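Bug report

Summary: structure tokens for PTS maltose transporter subunit IICB differ between web form and batch submission.
Environment: batch mode, default settings.
Steps: 1) Submit the sequence below via batch. 2) Compare with the web form result.

Sequence submitted:
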Amino acid sequence: MRTAIQKFGKTLMGPLSIIVASGLLLGIVSILQNPSLVGETVANFEAVQNFIGGVRAIVSMMFGLLPILFAISVATGLAKEDKEIAGFAVVIAFIIFHVVIGYLLELKGITLETTSVEYLMQDGLNQIKAFEISNAYESMLGVFTYRMGVFGGILVGLWTAFIHNRYHTKQLPTAFSFFSGNRFVPIVIIVTIPFLSIITFFIWPYFNSAINGLGSLISKSGALGTFMYGFSERLLIPTGLHHVLNQLIRFTPIGGTAVVDGETVSGALTIFNSVMASSQPDIDILRQSTRFLTQGTHAFMVFGLPAACYAMYKTSYLKQRPKIKGMLLASALTAFITGITEPIEFAFIFISPVLWLFHAFMAGLSFLIMTLMDVAVGNAGGGMIDLTIFGILQGTYTRWYLIVLVGIVYAVIYYFVFKFVIEKFNIKTPGRSDESDLNEEDEIVASDDNHFGANILQALGGKENIVEIDNCISRLRLVLNDTSLVNESLLKATGSMGLVKIDNKNLQVVYGSKVEQAARSLKNEVRK
């Protein structure tokens, strides 16, 4: 079950990368509108305004496509083979799914016209109630349907993946053999998806009420709610389930709901980007959305964890410092610039529960402090790039300088706490292992960069032990025939910063920013 959830969580990262990139574009064009940075002439120059308008139009369209992007990402990510067929089938499924729901709504007299605020107010409802009813519906790709957001896309993606994995090798009788295999998948989708639509038509209103209620509860929890989110998110890092929690906060009503330029949007990141894309940004709405975004991560990503790396270096054995200096420096710079922290976290999470809990607590505390200080720095990266574009260059309304002040305090606390705990409890962080842990053969492997994939394959027990290779933003995700054949010291010698053995077949290897290279090299080696 945990393996399945982890794989599902990984599929949600595809749309996130697109939205983060879109957000960066919005951040850059918003800088062009700041007269204090670029001057009145540039800010009001017609060509600049046309460029900004074009970027906003593109990014707004990307936000509108989020549900179908999630559907495609989930379906192709969970498909075991022939992923392109799953991608083709899920588009058909998504359209039919909403067409059927729209038809059922029409049968009940619920249409775009009858759910408009004006129509409902003429029918005797007050403005608040009219908005509440109207916001429950939307037009998706020109089809009137429930406002399901990414939930609709995820549901259709899961169903398509299930049908695809079950029937993409199905062989029909000779007379119908043309429709066998991959051709059979879209046919089954067309037949089955209306039933999913009918079930969803009756269940969704209740599910939607529950989700909105949870979002309202979190919103009313104020700073305490942000603390619980930050603490839980870091606590889930070893399991990989933090991806699921993040996407629920970023793209669903659990992360908040707001009206921006007359449109209802849900999810902290969606709200933030919608406000950034608005011609008249509402700073109060912006500030509310950023409570769950990068402003809560900068203190420990940009300042705290790099200081922890320095503490690990200072507590390492003198003879081993030359070996681990480059690794710790690279990990610290990666966290500082991009906000990718797992290479550092995996150096201590599994060997020191004390440091793990301390780190999770400090993460939650960071979210709480930023909320109490009304900081307004968004996006989903967490590193210096986001702090610069969405904080420093946006102006003082973001209160980015408070992040720096808190961050400096975090750096001092992280350094001394890590140094004290490592020395007090003799924690085997990088550079404190016994010399015997790494034999001569491992040293040779570690220095052989020209055979990266071959070295990883050797450490994993050979080609016969490999079943499936995948990766996320920092981890190599593997399905093996037997994880007991894995040589951990050899993997460490290839640059691995940590292992997660989920069971006797599933293994995750942390490579940080080198994970794409590791996955590609290993796949190429397996194909030989």
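Above is the batch result. After comparison, the two runs are identical; trailing whitespace caused the diff. Residues 436-448 have pLDDT under 50 and may be disordered. The chain has three domains: 2-223, 292-424, 439-527.
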